[in-house]
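Quick one, probably user error.
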């Protein structure tokens, strides 16, 4: 599964994605009910560190100062969400759960994220499992020797990974086994981006691009008539390949790959781990998902990496509003029927 390393990721985490909104500051007109008149379109752009990565905002509106104020309010609320969901912040709810094995009176935020994680766990037959953290830590600790881990330690660690051993209700979250631990790296960032988009819409801003470490949501359009254009960098940058261009509106995009947090030089072992066998999947180099929200796209990009093309595409084709594009280890590209539609 997709996870940050045990220490906070650098600001360039998932830089390999380089998903870029080719927004363009085209002058056009936009009628915003909040202001009740047609005004020249203005763009505000800002970058802000959060969850060990960088948030990138582009917000269009008739008044630049209003755009800037909305971004500031959104950042403040997103930072509050980080204080609940980041495993790297010592006093966060998630860090408390991992440290004590129990969290009393959980917030609606961590309950919402874990409920969604449980739903995706079921839909993917366990390919997405937020209790993966012990296995991730083990592989990080044996970099370069991942083919032959100590079998006793490996078996014990693998036995800690099972979402069904996580008890969740409104009063408490509880591990069934000692030394279990949860990482929300593959869903929390997407959830926070989704909440940020919601906040901006609540302030009347509907033409928005918001990206965090390669996971993004685009709302509305980049100008009056044009969709946003997103460039997906190939998974092997040493090969001379043109980026894939995707035109999207009101859609989330997330990519998972084998090439950022690798534990071995051949990219065989990396931060995406199959929860059942305990090793990184061998078929795909990257997977990009489009979906109605970023949290879902984030989860599914990890799940398809684990499931592989055939089972992964079956999953995606069964889910409304979701599409997939994959590149395998031989750099063969494939996509579901509606990915470029």
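Nope, works fine. Designed sequence:
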């Amino acid at each position: 599964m997709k996870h940050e390393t045990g220490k906070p990721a650098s600001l360039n985490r998932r830089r390999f994605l380089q998903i870029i909104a080719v927004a363009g500051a085209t002058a056009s007109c936009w009628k915003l009910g909040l202001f009740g008149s047609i005004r020249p379109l203005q763009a505000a752009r800002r970058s802000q560190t959060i969850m060990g990565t960088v948030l990138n905002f582009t917000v269009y509106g008739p008044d630049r100062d209003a755009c800037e104020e909305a971004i500031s309010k959104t950042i403040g609320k997103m930072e509050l969400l980080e204080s609940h969901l980041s495993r790297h912040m010592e006093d966060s709810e998630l860090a408390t759960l991992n440290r004590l094995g129990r969290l009393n009176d959980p917030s609606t935020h961590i309950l919402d994220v874990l409920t969604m994680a449980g739903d995706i766990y079921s839909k993917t037959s366990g390919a997405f499992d937020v209790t993966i953290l012990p296995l991730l830590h083990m592989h990080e600790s044996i970099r370069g020797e991942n083919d032959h881990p100590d079998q006793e330690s490996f078996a014990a660690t693998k036995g800690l990974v099972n979402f069904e051993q996580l008890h969740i209700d409104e009063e408490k979250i509880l591990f069934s086994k000692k030394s279990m631990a949860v990482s929300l790296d593959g869903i929390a960032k997407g959830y926070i981006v989704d909440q940020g988009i919601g906040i901006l819409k609540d302030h009347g801003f509907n033409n928005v691009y918001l990206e965090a470490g390669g996971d993004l949501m685009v709302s509305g359009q980049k100008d009056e008539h044009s969709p946003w254009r997103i460039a997906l960098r190939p998974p092997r940058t040493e090969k001379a390949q043109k980026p894939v261009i995707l035109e999207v509106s009101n859609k989330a995009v997330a990519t998972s790959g084998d090439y950022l947090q690798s534990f071995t030089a051949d990219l065989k072992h990396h931060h995406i781990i199959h929860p059942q066998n305990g090793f990184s999947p061998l078929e795909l180099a990257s997977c990009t998902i489009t979906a109605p929200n970023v949290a879902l796209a984030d989860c599914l990009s990890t799940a398809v990496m684990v499931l592989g093309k055939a089972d992964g595409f079956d999953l995606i084709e069964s889910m409304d509003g979701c599409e997939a594009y994959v590149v395998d280890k031989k750099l063969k590209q494939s996509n579901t029927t509606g990915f470029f539609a």
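The radius of gyration is 20 Å.
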